[in-house]
Design goal:
A: mainly alpha, elongated, B: 79% helix, globular
Chain lengths: 260, 227
């Protein structure tokens, strides 16, 4: 069954470039109304809104209102990969696909976009870029060099991923699932993880060395304490939250230092 | 610091707090960036970078997965960078005291994000009928007000944290009783433990991970020998 949109929009209707750019810009603000009820849902509606204006009747038409309401319901995905869903759902709405099919597609797509994105971005690309920046710092880099390297490297991946996702979604519509088989998404975390581990071996000691200062007399003690601590945190990784331990130890140390 | 001096930092905290989730998630809110920018605002970017690097290592332990609750490092980076940059160089307690203030700010700011998300949810509840009817105005209003509130949240957290911690850190630094070398050693050990543990948590499932790490250590050794 086709909805009213298919009756008036030409098959394969192409959105003007300015609308695509508006969607890409809005994608950066996707999580502006993130909440515990609909998660990304209202953000998806917000990003798709400029494209939905092309539905029959414009912003006052029933097709626009029905689509905007439908697309603003509960949805979850990684924010950088949500462009795939936004593009695909936009294509489906403009092509007049049956609303129940669109609802099923939304539900099916949310899980994979979340887990793939988390693995690729939060658990691979972000720590990798942090390590690169730490390495630049360890090698004596200036504030501008460290910050510039991090932001340029990280956002090259970030913006490419967002733009690719939207483009892929818009061109493939409901057949977008195959895009999740892209080698970058599937193999990327493995390769980036290997590179990050290699980098960690160089960057962390260099950065720690620079923080400790030249010729620290306690280098041996620092190394031993750090190794024992890392082994303990790694051993109890499910139960130990490193940053909370750091906060507690630091609070005790500051208190001791102030009172002595 | 008086309120007028804090104002530019509050604006920076607002923008970087916004970047964490709402817009544009370009990671200018990562502590290595946020603290360096705050340090530069005070006129001491290298001090901002120093505490930013330490915080970045600690922040590796709290990556922003899905709907999990995590510390907010954007405003915390601004607070940490500004506090350390404002202290005279060579004060042994400046780094540990500023870092403690920054970590506490990160925790409080993380909680403020949870509150904000609940406020947005309650606003959504009030406009649900209009959004379900496809009202463009209701959706845009909800979305843009969410971003505005996030901006204000960052400014508020930064202002309050600076008002509380600025005199407190100065007082702690003035009576600090531990030598500089020991103070820095504690920070280095803590940063190493948290970063090492965090990276192991994230990458332990990668094939041959230890070999890659050991190869990195060998390269570090070669680099040390050459310099």
């Amino acid at each position: 069954m086709k909805s009213a949109a298919a009756i008036t929009l030409a098959p394969g209707f192409e959105l003007p470039l300015r609308v695509k750019l508006a969607m890409l810009f809005r994608l950066l603000a996707l999580q502006g109304s993130w909440n515990y009820e609909t998660l990304l849902g209202t953000g998806i509606g917000f990003v798709m809104e400029p494209a939905l204006r092309y539905l029959p009747g414009g912003i006052d038409g029933p097709a626009y209102r029905a689509a905007l309401a439908r697309e603003s319901r509960y949805f979850n995905a990684h924010p950088y990969l949500a462009g795939i869903a936004v593009g695909a759902l936009t294509r489906a709405e403009l092509d007049g696909v049956d609303p129940t099919k669109i609802e099923r597609f939304r539900t099916a797509l949310a899980g994979p976009l979340g887990s793939v994105g988390d693995r690729l971005v939060w658990a691979s690309w972000l720590p990798f870029c942090s390590l690169v920046a730490l390495g630049v710092y360890g090698m004596g880099g200036s504030p501008l060099a460290v910050v510039g390297t991090f932001l340029l490297l990280y956002n090259a991946g970030h913006l490419l991923l967002r733009a690719w996702g939207l483009k892929t979604g818009l061109s493939r519509g409901l057949n977008v699932a195959s895009a999740l088989g892209n080698p970058v998404l599937r193999q990327g975390p493995q390769y980036i993880g290997s590179a990050a581990a290699l980098l960690a071996g160089i960057a962390l000691p260099l950065a720690l060395q620079r923080i400790a200062g030249p010729g620290s007399a306690m280098a041996g003690g620092i190394l031993a304490a750090a190794l024992i601590g890392i082994l303990l945190v790694a051993r109890f990784r499910e139960r130990a939250e490193g940053w909370r331990i750091a906060l507690a130890v630091l609070a005790v140390f500051v208190l001791y230092s102030v009172l002595t | 610091m008086i309120l007028l001096e804090i104002l530019p930092l509050a604006m920076l905290g607002a923008l970087l707090g916004l970047d964490v989730v709402s817009f544009p998630q370009a990671m200018v809110s990562r502590p290595i960036v946020a603290a360096t920018l705050a340090g530069a605002f005070i006129g001491n970017a290298p001090a901002g970078l120093l505490i930013g690097v330490v915080m970045e290592m600690i922040a590796l332990d709290t990556l922003p997965f899905g709907a999990s609750r995590y510390p907010e490092w954007g405003t915390a980076g601004v607070v940490g960078g500004a506090l350390l940059a404002a202290e005279p160089a060579g004060m042994p307690g400046a780094l540990p005291a500023s870092l403690l203030a920054a970590l506490l700010t990160a925790r409080i700011s993380g909680w403020s994000m949870v509150v904000l998300r609940r406020i947005i949810a309650s606003r959504l509840e009030r406009t649900r009928d209009r959004i379900e009817a496809g009202s463009r105005d209701a959706l845009l209003s909800l979305h843009l007000s969410g971003m505005t509130m996030d901006l204000l949240r960052g400014a508020l957290v930064t202002t309050i944290a600076m008002l509380i911690f600025s005199p407190l850190v100065a007082a702690m630094v003035a009576v600090w009783g531990v030598e500089s070398a020991y103070s820095h050693a504690v920070i280095v050990v803590l940063a190493a433990i948290v970063a090492g543990g965090a990276l192991w948590k994230v990458f332990h499932s990668v094939s041959h991970i230890l070999w890659f790490f050991l190869a990195g250590l060998v390269l570090w050794g070669v680099f040390l020998a050459m310099t």
